[in-house]
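Design a sequence for this backbone.
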């Protein structure tokens, strides 16, 4: 494949990416930096620099830890991100990318696992992103404008399997939230988009791939290949650029035609 041209889509923009320590989130950081962004990268619950970030200088990327499974986790993360702005010689956050999520099981039995699965999925996949959206909306109203990109899922449209009912429900809630924000706050400066991937090749997916075999998975995929994280990242960064403003409220499916609406 030919090397992608650098268009500086995010020049002079500061973006906050959650779940940026690996997988899709890290791919978003790579593409965003390539396109000129300054990035605040939420890398997980525990502080400490991740090896993959060594190639970035601190003017490009600052790492931030935060536990989004806590009730006040999103509030603290947003406050910490704002405190980093001055250190990065920036004045505002232009784009929020809610990428962090968990694929936590919620089996119908036993009851304690059902309850725990719902709490975990709703907190990390819906409530925490919603709280970050709330902060972003207020921030954008004070600074003039901004963009939110929420990472939903194919499961938001079709539901998920019996072991992951809570995951599908939480992602569907995030999708509905994105549409509501787009409709309600566009006139006040906030644009919102959703991205809904299916199978994506990440570190987490590799565990399953190694267990069942890649040919078993790709045999049922129209393109006979698993979506690379870079495909998702390129899409997210384009939406974050503001070059398709009237796509506000849209959902872009990245499934390789595995799920077509």
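Sequence:
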């Amino acid at each position: 494949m030919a090397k992608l041209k650098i268009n500086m889509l995010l020049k002079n923009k500061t973006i906050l990416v959650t779940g940026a320590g690996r997988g899709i989130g890290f791919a978003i950081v790579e593409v965003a930096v390539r396109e000129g962004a300054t990035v605040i990268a939420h890398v997980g619950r525990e502080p400490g620099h991740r090896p993959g970030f060594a190639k970035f200088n601190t003017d490009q990327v600052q790492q931030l830890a935060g536990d989004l499974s806590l009730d006040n986790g999103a509030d603290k993360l947003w406050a910490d991100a704002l405190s980093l702005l001055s250190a990065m010689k920036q004045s505002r956050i232009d784009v929020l990318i809610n990428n962090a999520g968990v694929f936590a099981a919620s089996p119908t039995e036993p009851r304690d696992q059902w309850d725990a699965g719902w709490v975990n999925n709703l907190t990390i996949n819906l409530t925490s992103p919603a709280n970050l959206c709330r902060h972003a909306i207020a921030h954008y109203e004070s600074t003039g404008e901004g963009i939110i990109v929420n990472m939903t899922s194919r499961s938001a449209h079709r539901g998920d399997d019996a072991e992951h009912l809570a995951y599908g429900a939480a992602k569907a809630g995030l999708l509905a939230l994105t549409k509501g924000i787009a409709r309600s706050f566009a006139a006040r400066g906030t644009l919102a988009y959703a991205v809904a991937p299916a199978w994506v090749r990440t570190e987490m997916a590799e565990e399953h791939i190694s267990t069942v075999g890649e040919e078993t998975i790709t045999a049922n995929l129209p393109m006979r290949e698993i979506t690379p994280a870079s495909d998702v990242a390129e899409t997210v960064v384009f939406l974050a650029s503001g070059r398709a403003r009237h796509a506000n409220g849209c959902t872009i499916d990245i499934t390789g035609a595995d799920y077509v609406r």
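Strands lie at 14-17, 38-44, 61-65, 95-98, 146-151, 190-197, 200-201, 227-228, 251-254.
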